[in-house]
Amino acid sequence: SPPDGFMELASEVAASAGRLPLGLNLLGSSMRGRNKKYWVDKLPDFRKGLDGNIQRALQVSYNGLERNEHKALFRHIACYFNGDEVDTIKLMLADSEMNVNIGLETLIDKSLIHVLPLHEKNIVEMHSLVEEMGKEIVRQQSKKPGKREFVTDSKNVRELLKDNKGTINVRGISLDLYKTDKLQIHKEAFQEMSNLRFVNLYTRKWDHNKEVKWDLHEDFNFFPPKVRHLGFDGYPMRRMPSNFRPENLVNLRMEGSKLDKLWEGIHSLTGLKNMDLMESTNLKEIPDL
């Protein structure tokens, strides 16, 4: 335990490392034997962000994952599934070749994630510092966002949808609509993203005074058939694309949409586990599920 007078300082230094085991080990080595004045003088540096050695250590931990599928699972969690239930992640990745159970255990052993019990559910938690490292790994896949595995930076998502820059490489996009005043979507925005599994255009908190100005072409008529999570809060059209096939959907969330009906006909929805159409006040009927 820290010497007398160091407890509060030690707690703050630990917090600056996100209480990550790798970070704590490195910080402990660098601070051991130093006097109290040195600790106080170093705190401003720690508050500014992770020490470069900790960043490199986290990268080494990721690089040390022997199987590509475990690296892929790490990137999926960092970019899309942080804070989700274990069972939800398994459902979402059921069409992949990943062994999620073994992958999660491996990431836990590497101190890259924790699984926490909460209200009889098991929640995957990745520290924000590790999450940011994962997102940076994905950014490094290509200078062009549309050629990356995930697109999560607001500016990049908006440009991707506006300019139809998506490719077969993209598996997921995520955008907090609360930070956006206008969203323009090309009529063929999703056409080339044939491997897209996860779409999350969301609001963390529905705000009746906050409205996104939509510019969605009237000829927009395509969602990729492999989509498993479709989140599209405030969806501005009366119907889903007529050729949309929802058979692969696991989660459907369209809070505050302008839908008056989801789709025509009967579809097999054996995989659908959650549907959230809250505040979709124009909705007149839901098809037979």
From TrEMBL:
Query: Which biological process annotations from GO are given for this protein?
Result: defense response
Residues crossing the lipid bilayer are: none
- Entry keyword set: Leucine-rich repeat, Repeat
Extract the Pfam families matched here.
LRR_3 (PF07725), WHD_ROQ1 (PF23282)
Keyword Repeat tagged: yes
User: Which SUPFAM superfamilies does the entry link to?
Assistant: L domain-like, P-loop containing nucleoside triphosphate hydrolases, Winged helix' DNA-binding domain
What InterPro entries does the annotation carry? Apaf_helical, Disease_R_plants, Leu-rich_rpt_3, LRR_dom_sf, P-loop_NTPase, WH_DNA-bd_sf, WHD_ROQ1-like
What Gene3D superfamilies would the database entry show?
A: Helical domain of apoptotic protease-activating factors, Ribonuclease Inhibitor
Residue span(s) of domain Disease resistance protein Roq1-like winged-helix = 69-142
PANTHER family recorded: ADP-RIBOSYL CYCLASE_CYCLIC ADP-RIBOSE HYDROLASE (PTHR11017:SF520), LEUCINE-RICH REPEAT-CONTAINING PROTEIN (PTHR11017)
User: What is the protein name for this chain?
Assistant: Disease resistance protein RPS6
